[in-house]
Design brief:
The complex is a heterodimer of chains A (257) and B (67).
Chain A (H helix, E strand, L loop, with lengths): L3 E3 L2 E3 L3 E3 L7 H11 L3 E8 L9 H4 L6 E4 L7 H15 L3 E4 L12 H13 L3 E6 L3 H10 L5 E2 L13 H10 L5 E3 L5 H10 L3 E4 L1 H4 L4 H20 L23
Helix pairs in contact in A: 1-9, 3-4, 4-5, 5-6, 7-9
Chain B lengths: L1 E4 L2 E4 L6 H7 L8 E5 L2 E2 L15 E9 L2
Parallel strand pairs in B: 1-5
Antiparallel strand pairs in B: 1-2, 3-4, 3-5
The chains are: A alpha/beta (257), B mainly beta (67).
Chain lengths: 257, 67
């Protein structure tokens, strides 16, 4: 499969993983390995003074796997910039999944604040991957604001509903000069394949793998579906037609009985 | 003197530096951690020289699982 370049990094895998919702750190690690992913998100939280820090980072110390800190939990651009700076200090990377979703019910991203934060963070040298609505106009604005990729949603986070925004994703993919990573809502491997067939450069999956009965096997299934979708896209699918077109010769080789 | 760590009140010695506070909290060697005092990030290299004052608000965060 062809490689993907975002900013200064090249990836063999076009499947990015979130690390939330796994029932154990070991299962998270094994699922990442099975998926072949080379970019995984991490969140930030306040250290619990009673229990101390989580040892999850030890489980993400996997050869070839890079960390993508997110700004989940922030409500506006100002908080996002501060969270980004904390993430850079904590994890030693300027890569950032910029996400600002003040609404707790649907976790829908605030495009206006995301754009504002993107301008600020680009000035500070961050590699910004913003999580946004499947809004083609906003995607172009983020391009001007210095984003390194765009991450439009398929459907709300954690819903497993698939590509409800399909028609808008198509427009984004057609217009974008940046890599397009379909994030959120991908619930089964066929959704990931569908996104890749549309021409997405990568997908980000979390819930679908983490909450599967067998997350490790599901990680492998997503790996295969992303590869299949990408190769399918590159192979140039045939046109969709209204009427039948025979695949076999219609030569009436039997005489009438 | 009183300071606040992640919104919890704590009594510490006068003029304590951030590095000593982290030692007391057994967080010196925690990977993936960042710290801010009154919303200003204290870089790792400045922890030994940053002196805390009465009522300072210390935020300590670390990496966590998330999507």
């Amino acid at each position: 499969m062809d490689k993907l370049t975002i900013a200064d990094k090249t990836f063999n895998s076009r499947l990015f993983l979130g690390t939330g919702k796994f029932s154990s750190n070991q299962l998270m690690q094994d699922s990442i390995v099975a998926s072949g992913s080379e970019l995984v998100t991490v969140a930030l939280k306040r250290v619990d003074m009673k229990s101390g820090a989580d040892d999850m980072l030890k489980h993400l110390n996997i050869p070839g796997v890079n960390l993508l800190p997110n700004t989940s939990g922030v409500r506006n651009a100002k908080e996002a910039v501060f969270a980004a700076q904390l993430a850079a200090e904590a994890l030693g990377t300027k890569w950032l999944k910029l996400e600002i979703h003040p609404d707790p019910k649907y976790l829908l991203p605030d495009g206006e604040e995301t754009l504002k934060a993107c301008y600020e963070l680009a000035k500070e040298g961050f590699i910004i991957l913003p999580y946004i609505h499947a809004d083609p106009v906003l995607c172009k604005k983020l391009e001007d604001a210095g984003a390194s990729a765009v991450m439009p949603l398929g459907s709300p986070i954690g819903t497993n509903q698939g590509l409800k925004t399909k028609e808008f994703l198509k427009i984004i993919i057609e217009q974008s000069n940046l890599p397009v990573i379909v994030d959120a809502g991908i619930g089964v491997p066929s959704h990931a394949a569908e996104a890749m067939e549309l021409g997405a450069d990568a997908v980000l999956v979390n819930t679908a793998i983490a909450v599967a009965h067998d997350p490790v096997q599901m990680g492998e299934a997503f790996k295969m579906s992303v590869q299949a979708g990408r190769i399918g896209h590159l192979s140039g699918p045939g046109a969709v037609r209204q009427q039948a077109e025979a695949s076999s010769p219609l030569t009436s080789f039997l005489s009438e009985l | 003197m009183v300071i606040f760590i992640n919104d919890e009140k704590k009594i510490v010695e006068q003029d304590i530096v951030v590095a000593t506070l982290l030692e007391e909290l057994k967080l010196t060697n925690s990977p993936g951690m960042a710290l801010a005092v009154n919303n200003q990030i204290v870089l790792q290299q400045n922890r030994a020289t940053t002196i805390l004052k009465e009522n300072d608000k210390v935020l300590i965060i670390s990496a966590a699982k998330g999507g």
